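note to self: dont lose this again. the chain is below, predicted strucutre after it. 196 aa total, dont forget to put it in the shared folder this time
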Amino acid sequence: MRTMGWEEVKQKLMRGLEEAKAKQLVDKDVIRYLDMINSVPECMTSSSCYGRILLIDVPTERKKDSKFIERWHKQVSFETVWDVIEKCSGERIWFKMEPLIIHISCKDLETAKRILKVKNEAGIKRGGIFSISDERVQIELEGTQRIALPVKIKDDVIVTKEYMGIVVDDANEKMRRNDERWKRFGIAFKKEFNLS
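---
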């Protein structure tokens, strides 16, 4: 069976990305970074998340059973979150703040090293090469800003309003730091790859 070359794989992934953008399946704030990375011939993105605050129903240990209740890819008011918590229903509702994550494929090891240099300059602590093949070197970058706690079981809210206010403030501060990491990543990437 014939394996696809770099250019062929990149064209296929870029078509998929354009379709996802058209259907608004890509986080709005991450698009400019994906476009920037994909403008470099030796790089292509395969999946990403800008970072998000969310409420999710996690009824079992299996990820496929989970159901998003609400997602915000930006800072959010306490009133908005509390309103959703009070009105939503599910088995086990969790409040989460999840950091940036991005998968980048590089044409060669040299390009991968340059991406890891950018990661370090941006202050992104977690990330590295997770796969090397003849066709490409795959990198995952992930922020460290996280929160995860149960807030409602069945119809019972199990956190106080005061406590949740503190948690939402903390989540918003982590989102602010997440935004800063993206900005620093963009600056460092443009400098490393001589982009305007």
